[in-house]
Amino acid sequence: MPKDDNGGMAWNTLSAEEKRIIEEKGTEAPFTGAYDDFWEKGTYVCRRCGAALYRSDDKFDAHCGWPSFDREIPGAVKRTPDVDGMRTEIQCVNCGAHLGHVFLGEKLTDKDTRHCVNSLSMRFIPDNPPS
């Protein structure tokens, strides 16, 4: 993870909309995110702190309007009960950024898990960046 000049976590500057999603636990409109219909090979990292969250190999099309993954990078995502009492929120373990929600039992993949993630909560790092 990147460090600042004082040895602490390097925090990326967030736009007002990114702050609404990441810090205020908002949700972007369905089918509007950059990574909803995006299939390049690489790693999705936390937009706020840069910690690795998901691999493209675990992404699938759930037809829900948000990027969906059936597995996180081990130890990268924290699950907590949502304030609505019905859903499970997912956050970056490293910095606590709101990512979205996780759903179980939908039978969309063999892993039977769907991480429904806001595109604005992530950045994509390609496996083979252009030279």
Order of helices and strands: HEEEEEEEEE
Q: What gyration radius follows from the Cα positions, in whole Å?
A: 14 Å
Tell me which CATH architecture applies here.
Beta Complex
Going by CATH, the homologous superfamily would be Peptide methionine sulfoxide reductase
- Summarize the biggest pleated sheet: 6 strands, antiparallel
Percent range for β-strand residues: 25-35%
CATH topology name, in short, is Metal Binding Protein, Guanine Nucleotide Exchange Factor, Chain A
Q: If you average the pLDDT, what whole number results?
A: 91
Helix content: under 10%
Molecular structure report:
This protein is mainly beta. It has one domain (16-126): Peptide methionine sulfoxide reductase (Metal Binding Protein, Guanine Nucleotide Exchange Factor, Chain A), CATH 2.170.150. It has one helix at 16-22; strands at residues 42-46, 52-55, 59-60, 68-69, 77-81, 88-92, 98-104, 113-117, 122-126. The strands form 2 sheets. The protein has a 6-stranded antiparallel beta sheet with strand order 3-4-8-7-6-5, with no helix packed on it. The model is unreliable at 1-8 (pLDDT under 50).
Brief overview:
By secondary structure, this protein is mainly beta. It has one helix at residues 16-22, and strands at residues 42-46, 52-55, 59-60, 68-69, 77-81, 88-92, 98-104, 113-117, 122-126. The model is unreliable at 1-8 (pLDDT under 50).
